[in-house]
Amino acid sequence: MKQLTGRVVAITGAGSGIGRALAQEFARHGARLSLCDINLAEVTATAEALARNGVDVIAQRVDVGSREDVMAWANATQRHFGVVNIVVNNAGVALSGAVPALSIEDYEWIMRINFWGVIYGTKAFLPLLEASGEGHVVNISSVFGLTSQPLMSGYNASKFAVRGFTESLRQDLELAGSRVSSTCVHPGGIKTNIAKSARVDASVAVLTGRPAAEATREFELSFFTTPERAARIIVAGVRRNRRRVLVGPDARLYDWLARLMPAFYQRIFTAVVRMRSRRAEGGAE
Asked: What pLDDT tens digit does each residue of the chain (285 aa) get?
């Protein structure tokens, strides 16, 4: 889908971060937009800013973990525009903690949003994309869908699931001879609020030797890429019909590690966390 002018793009999590930047980037290419976010004030602000520049845009509050919310949003998008060409399942949350410490409810929470939100968004919009004659599903995974990390089992599980689902979806669409395609996106560290809004269990402080807030700040220092840069890379990947889009130098590094050291990389990441923990303990003495 090289031509985006006049196309209708639906984006979840468009109130901030990558979602908002994607709305701006698609608008720059002349697209019409249906935006949603669980934070109504933020997504409304995004839509109003775009509308002032002449963009045809609608926005509403949607909890992507609610099947009913997502289906209602898809129907509202269809009623307003009459057609939908692209859906970007971007909304997501983060969870950090050791497996023994995290509750079943913690895992249900993150899977409901990060994985089931992608399932709901894909299933709700896929018939509309098929009807458009040329459509695209864009699902946002992560570098955590390429490699596993200590203390991130819930996030890893959700993002690996998004990757597997999206890659299989692409193959299903090709087997069916569909005019709809799909792309799985693996952003590295993007300068958004996802780390600050993450659920962080007390076990993180115990195993790293640092308060959760300090660990989060250090983690954020490794974020290399701005949302705007990420959005440009993602939109370019969609226009080129890429199966996989890596966003940022860290994403390329993680992909390289997974390819060359598919088992040994785990030892490296564990050793890094252990080393940081020892440094923190030494500094506290």
From this structure: 789 999 999 999 999 999 999 999 999 999 999 999 999 999 999 999 999 999 999 999 999 999 999 999 999 999 999 999 999 999 999 999 999 999 999 999 999 999 999 999 999 999 999 999 999 999 999 999 999 999 999 999 999 999 999 999 999 999 999 999 999 999 998 777 665 667 887 888 777 776 666 655 555 555 678 999 999 999 999 999 999 999 999 999 999 999 999 999 999 999 988 887 776 655 554
Longest Cα pair distance anywhere in the chain, in angstroms? 65
The domain limits of the chain are 8-284
Tell me which residue of 5, 31, 149 sits closest to 88, measured CA to CA: 31
Active site residue 155: yes
Q: Give 50-57 contacts, CB < 8 A, sequence gap 24+.
A: 50/23, 50/24, 53/27, 55/27, 56/32, 56/81, 57/23, 57/27, 57/32, 57/33
User: Which CATH superfamily is 8-284 part of?
Assistant: NAD(P)-binding Rossmann-like Domain (3.40.50.720)
Catalytic residue among 107, 120, 155, 254: 155
